[in-house]
Amino acid sequence: MDESKPLKVQLTFSVILVGISLLFAAVVTDHWAVLSPSLEENTTSCEAAHFGLWRLCTKRIFMQEPSPKEKSCGPISLPGDHNCSYFKHFTPGETSEIFEVTTQKEYSISAAAIAIFSVGFAIIGTICVLLSFRKKRDYLLKPASMFYTFAGLCIIISVEVMRQSVKRMIDSKETAWIKYSYSWSFACACAAFVLLFVCGIALLLIALPRFPQNPWETCMDAEPEH
């Protein structure tokens, strides 16, 4: 029996917990993408927006010294009036002009739903790993590794859906947004994919039975015939 196996599982699980933390941070925060409109001449304020899977936040930025070379609003870190609201397709009482287009609604709902699947897979995988520690049931590590791998795949699909949504929004003539950038929530989602997917595969390799190093090990481990 490989005596270092429990240590390997614990180290891999520690990295997985970091990935899950990044996953939760990406899902619940509103900084996936930042949008900037075109600036008008001699303007002293502009309205930028940043959004996540569930909410849209707009910010009226007051520019003290507008530069003629600046063609977009921002950065979003500048001081200004801040307002956040949930997307209309999640809460019918709220309004969101940015996501009024049917295509954008479909992208937004799809990205949020796939992210929820990712969170669900991560939670089930964590339960399996914790049960394997408590009950000494190593066979639970195999399904746990698959759940983590699925969680990583789901969050990267959600990232791609969101990326396509932002790209279509910028290219559309129905919106005033001319510039975009991805923010730290987007980076958290990408990092969560790498950690969950890689560590899920690593956990599966650890959970697999050790191959015999010498040809006679298999014969020595065989049960004697009666």
TrEMBL record:
It is found in: Cell membrane, Sarcolemma; Membrane. GO terms for biological process: regulation of calcium ion transmembrane transport via high voltage-gated calcium channel. One of its GO terms (cellular component) is L-type voltage-gated calcium channel complex. It holds the Pfam family Claudin_2. It comes from the Eukaryota. Keywords: Calcium, Calcium channel, Calcium transport, Cell membrane, Disulfide bond, Glycoprotein, Ion channel, Ion transport, Membrane, Transmembrane, Transmembrane helix, Transport, Voltage-gated channel. This is Voltage-dependent calcium channel gamma-1 subunit. The gene is CACNG1.
